[in-house]
Specification:
Layout lengths: L18 H7 L9 H19 L17 H10 L4 H4 L7 H15 L2 H8 L18 E5 L11 E5 L5 E3 L6 E4 L1
Parallel strand pairs: 2-4
Antiparallel strand pairs: 1-2, 3-4
Helix pairs in contact: 2-3, 2-5, 2-6
């Protein structure tokens, strides 16, 4: 009998072990009043949005993600919590399984009692909801206006704030990089 290989990814159930810390530090509304609640909120948002919606905090580096901009959460962690930088930087070459490992490492590093107790004594800094930095999100939107002869085609635009690059494939939506 052959032994089945386990998946390299991290299953959602892994995060159940953080329920007690989440109960203590995850704010009922907003980001809370100290750095521990900000950390807990940011990490939970990153983890939840990946497992629920397939969103990533930077969709310009390989993983496409979905439709929600999570870059501010990662930018805040990167800016204010130095031990997250080497973990968050791993998105550059990450596939789905590596991204799940990255989230696991991020969670393991910060969501422990000693770390959260320390950060709970510090007033909140900035906002996890509005923090610029190295991580970016390209917003995709669809244009229903028919620019093709075939009525079944749609245009998909990506607003990256770059200039004059675009490509077209007759069998796929046009992707414009503005």
């Amino acid at each position: 009998m052959q032994k089945c290989e386990e998946t390299k990814g991290v299953k959602w159930d892994y995060y159940n072990k953080f329920n007690a810390l989440n109960d203590k530090y995850l704010s009922d509304q907003g980001e809370g009043e100290n750095m521990a609640t900000q950390i807990c909120t940011a990490i939970n948002k990153l983890v939840y949005k990946w497992y629920n919606d397939g969103d990533v905090y930077d969709n310009t580096r390989g993983l496409a993600g979905w439709l929600n901009d999570l870059s501010s959460y990662a930018n805040w962690l990167y800016k204010y919590i130095p031990q997250t930088q080497s973990i968050l930087d791993r998105i550059d070459d990450a596939d789905e399984h590596q991204y799940e490992q990255l989230l696991k490492d991020l969670t393991d590093t910060l969501l422990n009692q000693k770390t959260m107790d320390y950060y709970s004594s510090l007033d909140k800094l900035g906002s996890i909801y509005d923090c610029d930095g190295k991580f970016r999100f390209i917003e995709a939107f669809y244009d229903d206006e028919d620019d093709y002869e075939d009525d079944g085609d749609e245009e998909m635009w990506f607003d990256t704030r770059r200039t004059n690059l675009w490509c077209e494939n007759k069998n796929q939506p046009r992707i414009w990089v503005l």
